[in-house]
Amino acid sequence: MKPSALWKWVWAPGVRGCRNHAYLRERLVALPLLTALAFTPFAWAHTTVRADAAYIQDRAAPALGDLADARASLQIADGEAADSLRAGRAVELSGLSERYRTRTTRATQRLNQVARSGALSTSERQDLDVVAGLVADYGTWTAWAQANAADRALREASLAYARSILCSTRADPATLVCRPATGSTATAVVDRVTALERALQDRIADRADPGADVLAAFAVSGVAFLLLVHGLWRTQVFLHHRFRLYVSLPLLAAALPLLALPLLAADAVLVQKAQRAAESTARALSNQTSPRIESAAETHPFAAPDRYVIAALEDSVDRELAEGRLAFLGPAPAWVVPAGLLSAAVTGVTLHSYRREYVRLTRPGAAP
């Protein structure tokens, strides 16, 4: 179709001078094509946005929370081990504190959950296996320090080596908070866990960005949608004037699926907005949480919680993504393409039947 013909087809308001046969032939080609262009790119883009949100909610965000909790738990356990070992010989009989055992077990469980999450790449999974091995070595050397608690030199040497496995450097020796290293010096547990957290943050940011391809698909679908609505309306006007039909019921039925596209577009906007909010909260999981905050929340469970408690941030991400959609749509997005193809087929069959077997109902002498 030439640009001038397309302009006339879109904007020409009248039906006088149009031949029935030629007019229906143009609609027979244009309307099903516009229907396919309105539904198919939209379905792909909407599915991509929803899949990205599901990946963040079900895989990346939980894995990021597990890594943050494991990192904090190991540092809390390290502080508990240091406090327990100061008792000297007494710790050989009493053992390390219950809090140390609870936190190390919790860290191990969290790392296992990350391994099962499916959020990591193959190389990242290998790094996680290295972290698990280092955590086991840390526990071995801490137990060795406990077994030799009576010998101060051996106890302190064992504990120092255990801490070197956990942290490369410490931001504050008094509070035993680790400062993550980068590059070739990032060999300790906290360094490697922090690197995995950054990788997941980048992946979440990438999924939260719709991308040029998704935006282009929505743009194509939007233009096709407007042209299709206008084309269907003009076709109904044409049939009303030339065929004396009050309304073409098959074409009206074929247009009904179009009502779902604005709702699904609103759903996509809400999902995208929720992804942006979840991305910000996910960054807080890594950048704002600390062993001090987690320890305070554990010590004072009934006090007003800090906004950067890991459990609260995990709930916030899940809530943001769960609420960031039109829940009443349910499985409707899965039916976008079938509904569009059915609409195109009904439109084509209807126009083809009008074109082949129409009866001229206009005034005598009108052009066929």
Automatic annotation (TrEMBL):
Keywords: Membrane, Transmembrane, Transmembrane helix. The keyword Transmembrane helix applies. It comes from the Bacteria. The chain crosses the membrane at residues 214-233, 245-265, 335-354. This is Uncharacterized protein.
